[in-house]
Design brief:
The complex is a heterodimer of chains A (108) and B (117). With 108 residues, chain A is mostly beta strands. In chain A, the strands form 2 sheets. In chain A, strands 2, 4, 5, 6, 9, 10 and 11 form a 7-stranded mixed beta sheet that branches. In chain A, strands 1-3-8-7 form a 4-stranded antiparallel beta sheet, with no helix packed on it. Chain A is globular. With 117 residues, chain B is mostly beta strands. The termini of chain B are far apart. In chain B, 39% of the residues are buried. Classes of the chains: A mainly beta (108), B mainly beta (117).
Chain lengths: 108, 117
């Protein structure tokens, strides 16, 4: 199975901050990567797919990029509604998809 | 709009069985692959099972293989997960998700399965 790691596991930030979360795959996944946002008690919400494509309706302050086996989610200016846990997910080995362990973003 | 509604969760003793359902609306269910994903309390997301649009191709995570059975009824726009020989480590919220080549764009609200004596 393809293993996904994320860093950091948690971070504290303020409204307006630029936030970056990194996800690393154990092997090449050819941009077959999605990012999800999950709030407590809610289902995950798809933010980006194909590493950098924004899902319909997702604010443009969210963006994604790739460098080798490293993938980055950037929130350009953190908003109050962005405090949540973020997961990356590879689908290169679909249907045997795997998720990263998550990054919790909370208020500083 | 796309809607997925799970049901069937609850409290069950170790070794017991449970059948989860997921009813889909707002899209042509028979055109889409579907997956079950679970999340143990306070933990991350784990893929459980996948079924192709026709039901002819099925995959399971090693952790549930031989115990869980995924199925679908396209005439009823419904997805199922039969869970047998349940263990404590199966305790989780179970989500159904519409699978578009591995990209999971739509999820249900989840149903909680608790395995405890």
């Amino acid at each position: 199975d393809i293993q996904m790691t994320q860093s950091p596991s948690s971070l504290s930030a303020s409204v307006g901050d630029r936030v970056t979360i990194t996800c690393r795959a154990s092997q090449g996944i050819s941009n077959s990567l999605a990012w999800f946002q999950q709030k407590p008690g809610k289902a995950p919400k798809l933010l980006l797919y194909a590493a950098s494509r924004l899902e319909s309706g997702v604010p443009s302050r969210f963006s994604g990029s790739e460098s080798g086996t490293d993938y980055t989610l950037t929130i350009s200016s953190l908003q109050p509604e962005d405090f949540a846990t973020y997961y990356c997910q590879q689908y290169y080995s679909t249907p045997r998809i795997t998720f990263g362990p998550g990054t919790k973003v909370d208020i500083k | 709009q796309v809607q997925l509604v799970e049901s069937g969760g609850g409290l069950v003793k170790p070794g017991g069985s449970l059948r989860l359902s997921c009813v889909a609306s707002g899209f042509t269910f028979s055109d889409y692959y579907m997956s079950w994903i679970r999340q143990a309390p306070g933990k991350g997301l784990e893929w459980v099972s996948y079924i192709s649009s026709s039901g002819s191709t099925i995959y399971y995570a090693d952790s549930v293989k031989g115990r869980f059975t995924i199925s679908r009824d396209n005439a009823k726009n419904s997805l199922y997960l039969q869970m047998n020989s349940l263990r404590g480590e199966d305790t989780a919220v179970y989500y159904c998700a519409r699978d578009y080549g591995g990209s999971l764009g739509n999820w249900g609200q989840g149903t909680l399965v608790t395995v405890s004596s």
